[in-house]
Specification:
The protein is of the alpha+beta class. It is built from 6 helices and 11 strands.
Length: 194
């Protein structure tokens, strides 16, 4: 049995499986999706579409059956400082619901979506790894989505090396661009996080 609020190490890997970066987070939910709460602790990263500021909070959704993950990015300056591990542990099975109720909607900057190969998770070791396929989407709370790194994705030749995965990625991309995404649409995790 996994423990809500337990520390997890998240590892991003490149398409070859080599580690790119790893960082700590806390387990929010161990279903589908697996939810992780993490804080952006690195120096601020300014991009043309959003700033990942030091202290920002990410609610990360890792799906076992979808070729992508979703990071909801919250402005850390608008959040009350707290011990997130303790908050999550206190609510246990209701942690996702309570977290969604707690995070102010006006603090949400948007959603960063990474297209990926299937995740690798080991709850006993407290580790989750995902393989990046370069293609990303940025979906701001207001404004039009950004499609990122298409050329890098095409250079991987997924369409010829793994046509099924390439088809799944394209279908998911079109669905996300059409429907959008919300991790905390309401207070009911089974609907909001599906």
């Amino acid at each position: 049995m996994t423990l809500v609020g337990r520390p997890m190490i998240i590892e991003k890997r490149n398409p070859d499986g080599d580690p790119v970066v790893e960082y700590p987070g806390w387990l929010v939910q161990d279903g589908n999706p697996i939810l992780i709460l993490a804080r952006w602790e690195r120096p601020s990263l300014v991009t043309p579409y959003v700033t990942f500021a030091q202290g920002d909070l990410l609610l990360e959704a890792y799906y076992r059956d979808r070729p992508y993950n979703v990071f909801a990015l919250y402005d850390g300056k608008q959040l009350t400082p707290m011990d997130w591990a303790q908050f999550l542990a206190r609510w246990g099975a209701k942690a996702a619901e309570k977290l969604c109720q707690h995070l102010p909607k006006n603090a949400l900057k948007g959603y960063y979506i990474n297209f990926t190969r299937p995740i690798q998770v080991d709850f006993a070791k407290g580790r989750l790894a995902w393989l990046d396929l370069a293609l990303d989407l940025w979906m701001p709370t207001q404004g039009k989505p950004w499609i990122l790194d298409e050329e890098e994705y095409r250079a991987l030749h997924i369409d010829t090396q793994d046509p099924d995965l390439a088809r799944q990625v394209e279908q998911a991309r079109q669905a996300l661009l059409t429907r959008g995404i919300q991790l905390c649409a309401d207070a009911t995790p089974s609907h909001a996080l599906a």
